Please model this.
Amino acid sequence: MSAIEQRILEKTWFYRFQLPNGTITSTYDDGALDGIHTSRLAMLQTVIDARFGGTLAGRSAIDIACHQGWFATKLAQWKADDVLAIDARSEHVADTTLMRDALALSNLRVQQSDVHALEPAALGQFDLVLMLGLIYHLENPIGALRQAHALTRQACVVETQVVPGMSGMVDYGSYRFVRPLKGSFGIIDETDDTHGPEASTTGICLVPSTEALMWIMRKIGFARVEILPPPADAYEQLLHGKRVMVVGYVD
Ligand SMILES: C[S@@+](CC[C@H](N)C(=O)[O-])C[C@H]1O[C@@H](n2cnc3c(N)ncnc32)[C@H](O)[C@@H]1O
Model:
């Protein structure tokens, strides 16, 4: 076993990474969350197959809020020419870099950044954008979705926890100006959890309803927005519509 593999196996990870020597990293909570990752990977695979013919060769991709880089390493292993993995937390950037080196993925770059600080004009566009597990930790989820749209050349996959939606009509200043609700946001308090590796960095979180997410993605410029169906054995939250994974296409 190499020194780098030994270092990796000394800690517990958020994801089950398979190392070159065949060993698999142990995960938090005795693997209770593994299913959420494998279900989302299977759903992402359907986009890679349908839109990109099963390979990212010749394409670029960005994973925004990459955590320890599991999805970013998958994008690199799908042979993307260039993958950029971004996370706000320095420890995740260090872990993603360690994993990139262990897996010898020369097509994977890693950078520390808040999603809102990304500069699409400088970064350019990516054929595939991933924004998984992020927007429900943000106080400005629409701003983050606008960033994702600006970075998207072809397809953007967004996955999020969702809240039950409200619908109906609102007297918007007066009974003469009635407007329909397009969806809703729930407020979740993570202010005591901002130290957590998966958590918000600011603590005030706006979680969209599915209707809100779909409407916003269309409104900010995606030509087509589709909900990805979960597989029959998907993680329970995906199966029961408590989380959704959607793909927005630029054309
Ligand atoms: C629930 S984890 C999701 C990780 C991964 N994308 C996934 O779906 O498995 C949330 C991630 O968002 C990152 N994050 C939180 N706020 C962020 C921000 N404002 N900008 C960039 N990353 C952020 C966290 O550090 C963490 O890695």
